[in-house]
Structures are given as C-alpha cells and as structure tokens.
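Memo to structure team: turn this sequence into structure tokens by end of day. - J.P.
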Amino acid sequence: MKFDTPATTNPIDRGRVIGIPHDRIDGAAKVTGTAPYAYERHDAAPNAAYGWIVGSAIAKGRINAMDLRAAEAAPGVLGIVTHQNAGALGKGNMNTAPLLGGPQIEHYEQAVALVIADTLENARDAAQLVRIDYAVEQGRFDLAAERDRAVRPQDGFGGPADTQAGDFDAGFAKAAVKIDQRYTTPDQSHAMLEPHATTAAWNGDQLTLWTANQMIAWSVGEMAKTLQIPKENIRFVSPYIGGGFGAKLFLRADALLAALGARLAGRPVKVAIARPQIPNNTTHRPATIQRIRLGADKHGVIDAIAHEVWSGDLPGGGAETAAQQTRLLYRGANRLTTHRLATLDLPEGNAMRAPGEAVGLLALEVAMDELAEACGIDPVELRIRNDVQYDPEAGPQRPFSSRKLVECLRQGAERFGWSHRNPKPGQVRDGRWLVGMGVASAFRNNLVMKSGARIGVDGKGHVIVETDMTDIGTGSYTIIAQTAAEMLGVPLEAVTVRLGDSRFPASAGSGGQWGANSATAGVYAAAMALRAKLAEKAGFPADQALFEDGLVRLGNQSQPIGTLAGGEGLWAEDSIDFGDLAERYAQATFGAHFCEVGVDIDTAEVRVRRMGGAFAAGRILNPKSARSQVIGAMTMGVGAALMEELSVDTRFGFFVNHDMAEYLVPVHADIPQQDVVFIDELDDKSSPMKAKGVGELGICGAGAAVANAIYNATGIRLRDYPLTIDKILAASVGDRSA
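Reply from structure team:
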C-alpha cells in the first residue's frame, strides 16, 4: 500500500479498540517469568555452552601477541575465538569499529576474544587467564581538547550537517536582546535492564540467533556482511527485548561472537555482554559542546537564532545532531545551525533515545529561559510568541502537518498551576527547601519507515498477525493486536500477535520513535488486503463491507469471517510504503514539560517534587502504554539533568564508572509525581493511523525543565550537565551563573 495522499475516514476512526487504554497483552508472560528472552532460550538450545568476552585493556594500539595456553587448559574450556581463528570477517555498514578486534585495537573493551566453556563460571574464570601483549598508541579522548580540530561531518540520517536562512550575523547584531551562551552535555549510557545477549546455533550452514535486537531486518543484512554468508542462511529471533533505547539498533559483539563461538564449539553458545563491559564495548550517547545565540526584540520575538554543536566519535562515525530541533521549533528569519565532528578514540557514539533532540533541548530550552528573563517575559508566554506553523527554514510553502505546541503549553501550564510561580528566583521557601518551577518545550521529529505484516484468520475466526516488528518494552504486541482487532471487527482476545522473527515480513523495527506508527500502519495495509479477500468470498464490494462482531456485513446480510476463511484459513500480506508527504509537510511531535524542584538550602541537594507534561503526538493508539512511555522518558530526562554521566579517563581512554553502582540513574524515590495529558490530535498526513511516535518525545526538554526550575528556586544558572551538588555549591559561593 502506498501512502502518498492524506488519510480520509477509515476503519481505524471507529475507535472501538484503537485508542482504548488496554492492558499489555504480553504483561502476564513477563510478570510470571515465562516470556522467553534471548539468553534464556534453553528450549531452543538445550545443550548450549557459554561464552565470555575478553575486552581490550587499551584504547588504541595493536596486539603484539596472545597467550591462550593457560585459558585453553582451564576446566571446561571448549575453545577460544580470536581474530586469528575467526576466519575472514567483513564489517557491516552500521558498525563504526569491528566487533571483533585484533590485531588493530580501536577502543577500550573492544572484544578481542571469546572464551567458550561448559558453564558460565568456567568461561568467566578462564577468560581471566588470557594474556595479551599490546603496543599502545597515543589516543584522543578529550572532546574539549579536540574541538578546534573538529570538521564538518557528512550529511546523515539527521539531515544536513549545516543549515542557514537569512543573514544570522546581521540579524543578531541588530537585536535588542541577545543571548550568547555555551552549554555542555556528557557522555551517557543506555543502561537498559537486559544486557546485550544472544544464543546462537548452527544447523549445517544455517545460523539461528535468539538475540536482543531492535531492528531485525537491518541486523540480518549486517550479520550476512560480517560473516560473508547469504542472508537467506541467517535467522534472527527476538520476540522479547528487555529495553534498548537505541543500544540494540545494530549488530553488537554478543551476536557475532555467539555465532563464531557456536561454529568453533560445534554446539549452541550463549553470550551476554557483562554489565561492566557494556558502556565501553557497545555504544553510548556522545558528549556535546553547544553554543546558542538568540537575538530578539524587546518583546521577546526572535529574529536571529544560531545553534552550533561539537561532538566526537571514532573515525567513520557520525555527529550528535543536537541542533536539529532548532531548525524547526521557533520562529526567526535569520538562522544558522552547524555540527562539527571531532575524532575521538573512545567507544562508539551512536543513537540513544531521541538522538539529537534529547541533548539539543537541554541547551536550547535553557537558552529560551534566559531569553525570557532578559526580556522580562513569562517563559511560557515567550515560547507562545515564537510559535510558527511552518518550517521556519523553508518558509510557508512547507507547513506543519499538525502542530499543537501552543495548546500543550497552555493546557500544561493550567494543569500544573504555573500561574502560582514566583518569577523572581530564590523567593519561595518550604522549610529547609528553596522551591522553584521550570518549563521547557518538547519536540521530536515524526519519522516513518516502510513496514510490512502478514495477517490471517482461521476457521474459528481467530486472527493471527506476523511481522518482524520488535517489542522493547514499548507495547508493540498490544497496539498491533488493537489494530488488527479494529480492522477486522473482532475483540482483542481473538488476536494473536507474533513478533521479532526474520521469517516474518520486514517491519519498521523499534527505533527513532517510528516503530508504533509505522508498524501499525503496516498491519493496517495487510488487514486491508485481508478484508478485500474476505469481502470477495462473501460476494460483497470490499469498499462497502463492514467488519464487526466477527462478521462481514453488507446491509442485512452477514457472514462470519471464520466461515469465509475455511478450514485452511485465509492470509494476506502487504506493507505500508510512505510517499513524499514528509517532504511536503514538516512532521513533528510537540509537548510542554513542567517541573517543580526543591533545593536544600545547606547541602544543595536537588529533589524533584512533581512533574507535568502535555503532549501532542497524533492519535494516541493506547493511552495507557503511551503514558507509560512518556513517564519513562521524563524519568530519563531527570537522569540527564541531575546525575547521568560517563566519566572519561582522558589518560587511558575509557569510561571509568562502567557499572550500575557508579553510573547513576533515577530510582523510584527520585520521581514522586508525574502528570501526563495528551492533546487531542489526528495527523492525516503522517499515516493511515493518523498517529505519530511518542516514545522519545517525553525525554525531549524534560531535563531543561529541571534546570530551569533549579534556577527559579536558587537564582543559580548552570549550563554544564549533569547539574550536580558540587556545581550548585560552587556557583552559590562564586558567580551565580556557571
């Protein structure tokens, strides 16, 4: 099905199943421990051996020699995979560095060996006996030190590296009010619950991987390139994934080494990347340095806006596109955005929940708060004054498909009690706590991807959906079942959903906030094809037939869909292929974050007291799971604001705090109250579902609202994340703007 014209009235609009806050249909399996995760596939591979990854002890250099004798002689060891016996390997397009290192080393903890043994403990113990002699080379590990050598990166997934409109320098020079500030964000870890894990098995030349992977079709192709075997010989199975946040978008070392280990050992092999290895072995959100300049008139109306970003990655990597929201969020005739990429020999920087906007809004929305103060205007009102209903770089000829930022700001402010905020910082006390409120806009581009599905109905009227779409804790099972139930007129319990298998039609996968909207649109396309087949069997015109209560109806005639399907069942397959609507219309999701914090008058401890958010993201397919996605994202935003930071050892090139004891994330006690409201919205130019993504929108701007609340509470303006106690204390005794 081609989606190249705006959607009209369709079966989804009935809203009998879609739009209802149904419980997760996969919830029971998860809470009872019966959902099969990648490392637990004892049913599929009962005789599996265990692999333990040996990571590089240096960040850059070469392996001179490897002494494996003691490890090979250790109890239970079945073999050791290294670059010397792995055979010829390619490298997928989506991996910056080879997943198996040697002899060249490109980053700390790059996998250099896999020790395979009969038990996990034996594999782990033997791995400590591997002896490696390295030749260390000088590396580059400090973004600030490399900033002046950064270059313009290639245009990529986030659009062009640089954009401009009008004459920024002239517009900024004549502005009545100017903001020119530098902001920094640190490296961050995904820190999902389930580690990267794979169970691999060979059957002749056929490879099966039960793995934790967000993008099945992508990774089949990447594994084929890496192992240099046909794609048809590879099967990925990922029915349940314990979180990813982008860390599992691409092929990682666990999958490759499990495949190589299983081939060497002649039996299935399980590999999980140990938690302390994950930050340095896999991917992370890269650090940024950002400069933002805003020029406005005395009423706060922006005429000039510039956002410059510096980030770093391994050779061949990409930039953190943190200026992308600045291209679309606020008005201003004179505009400039740039990205510059430094070469760093740190582990790979790559996608983490809302790449670009999540860190870009940490800077932009604080700058907007600073502009509001400089103009003496309420921060909510300032944002409303700078709303624009079209792409401000392209002009009115490219309007937004739908944009309800103003509604989000107004409704969010009313629900939160924003009118009670004291605009003068440091004035509100509650015992030992200084109390303040902050606001920030939320923005995330609406992305769509081609997505396919296969859908069938059996003789009993039961519906089955098959697609390689994944569920990373986001509720894919449920919204896909809701879509099928709505389209075929059956109750939710009459639908079975099968996900995460490369033998199923290729879907959008889970990433970029495109998964829910695109995957359900693919199911919509397949369901339309099945409806046509069922209507034909009933002798009804497909465009006039109604599907409800398990029946196909036309006037006073009806037939059960199970009867029409017959004993062998009836199947249809199709995909949604998106046209140029995303080029003709700017498509994005919007929201407004509100936060109240308390700051201890003596210790500078920050406590989030409550949060609120109003969001516009098209049709909300399941309000319950959508709210869950948003509050989880808001929680990650609090982490980014107050605590999350991978500390770089700039002498040796690795992240020091590489475990959950030292890498801090919010816990339940840190997040006492979150109020979420969705603004009514249908976007007929996004998909036939008239929906948009929502899973990443909630993190965008949340941390900035925390930062702005801290300023309102204390009068201390911090621009270097995370906003930790030591920074607040230092600013409180020195310059109150740091």
